[in-house]
Amino acid sequence: MELFGFSVLLLSKLFFAAFNGILFTQSGLDKVFHYQGNLDYFKDHFKKSPLASTVGLLMPVITLLETSAGVTSLVGLLLLLLGHDAGNSVAATGMGLGGLSLVCLFFGQRIAQDYAGAAALVPYFLMTMAGFVLYAF
């Protein structure tokens, strides 16, 4: 089946890559451009958790993971639009990095006992994993 000249499978891949690209690029770049504000927020958020002393180290890690997931997804999107075979594997890599980012964030939220924050990540994780699986086809 086709829609707008694209197969439904390809459209699904494009939408997943676009969503992942927007989600993680914005989140990562927000941490880059508002680093101190985010760092202060996370230090306060984790001040009573076992991660309190590691926030300064973990902040650049999650920033790099999120930004990499987003940019890789957007590159995959572009390659898919241009019809390159590498688009599938690049977009899948973006989905994998996104999944890793979300697992790290989920872990942090659970350790901080922010159960509502952890629960809010679940739909993003499910979306990312569905996209990840989709690239196998």
Automatic annotation (TrEMBL):
<protein>
    <submittedName>
        <fullName>DoxX family protein</fullName>
    </submittedName>
</protein>
<keyword id="KW-1133">Transmembrane helix</keyword>
<feature type="transmembrane region" description="Helical">
    <location>
        <begin position="57"/>
        <end position="82"/>
    </location>
</feature>
<feature type="transmembrane region" description="Helical">
    <location>
        <begin position="89"/>
        <end position="109"/>
    </location>
</feature>
<feature type="transmembrane region" description="Helical">
    <location>
        <begin position="115"/>
        <end position="136"/>
    </location>
</feature>
<keyword id="KW-0812">Transmembrane</keyword>
<keyword id="KW-0472">Membrane</keyword>
